[in-house]
Design goal:
- By secondary structure, the protein is α/β, with parallel strands linked by helices.
- It is built from eight helices and 14 strands.
- Strand 10 and strand 11 form a beta hairpin.
- Helix 2 packs parallel to helix 3.
């Protein structure tokens, strides 16, 4: 997906952009409301991540103006406050979702993916390699045309790997995305499930890059 991120906090902006790029998204970043409006006139995005507190205006105003111009792109509002009245104002302005600061990067990525799915956009909806085929929306896996049952957590792991579009996904990111934890128990579970996935789909379906992580073939 092509994601626009608008936030004037340089450190947070870099964190969000880097995180989304690692997931395989193309990301544009801006720091002001005026830049955002200008960019929306020139470019088409799949999802917009928009901070409320911008130096030259409110993200809610940007959202309202964008909707008034007929923009239908899903918008995720970032806010330092989770007050009900602010959420109502944002929803009335046309926002699709809210995320209060501070937030977990894994949750931000999940919300961006969810907004993309609402409009039929996703980092990866199907994947195939040799005789193996995965259909993520249907949660349907086949090997040589025969259905192979996968657990919900196995699907979650494969979804994270598929979203990277062939790039290596660090173990720490898989633990963060699937378990929201990186303790020894979660790490041991990941090892067990990776072994099961390879038994079900074939040993070459997922490759291990020592010292880095995993990637789909």
């Amino acid at each position: 997906m092509y994601v626009l991120v608008v936030d004037d906090n340089a450190e947070l902006l870099e964190l969000v952009v880097t995180s989304l790029e690692r997931e395989g998204h193309r990301v544009a970043s801006l720091t002001t409301a005026s830049e955002a409006m200008s960019s929306l006139d020139r470019s088409t995005f799949d999802v917009i991540v928009l901070d409320i507190g911008l130096p030259d205006g409110s993200g809610i105003d940007v959202c309202r103006k964008a909707r008034a111009r007929g923009l239908s792109t899903p918008i995720l509002i970032l806010t330092a406050r989770a007050a009900v009245d602010q959420r109502v104002e944002g929803l009335d302005a046309g926002a699709d979702d809210f995320l209060a600061k501070p937030f977990a990067v894994a949750e931000l990525r999940a919300r961006v993916r969810a907004l993309g799915r609402r409009t039929g956009i996703s980092a990866a909806r199907t994947w195939s390699h040799g005789s193996v085929a995965l259909d993520f929306p249907k949660r349907y896996a086949t090997v040589e045309g025969r259905e192979v049952p996968l657990t919900a957590r196995e699907w979650s792991i494969l979804d994270v790997l598929a979203s990277a579009r062939g790039r290596v996904v660090p173990r720490t990111r898989i633990l963060e995305e699937v378990w929201s934890d990186g303790d020894s128990a979660a790490a041991a579970s990941l090892d067990v499930l990776m072994t099961r996935i390879r038994k079900k789909l074939g040993s070459d379906a997922v490759r291990t890059v020592r010292g880095e992580g995993y990637a789909l073939a």
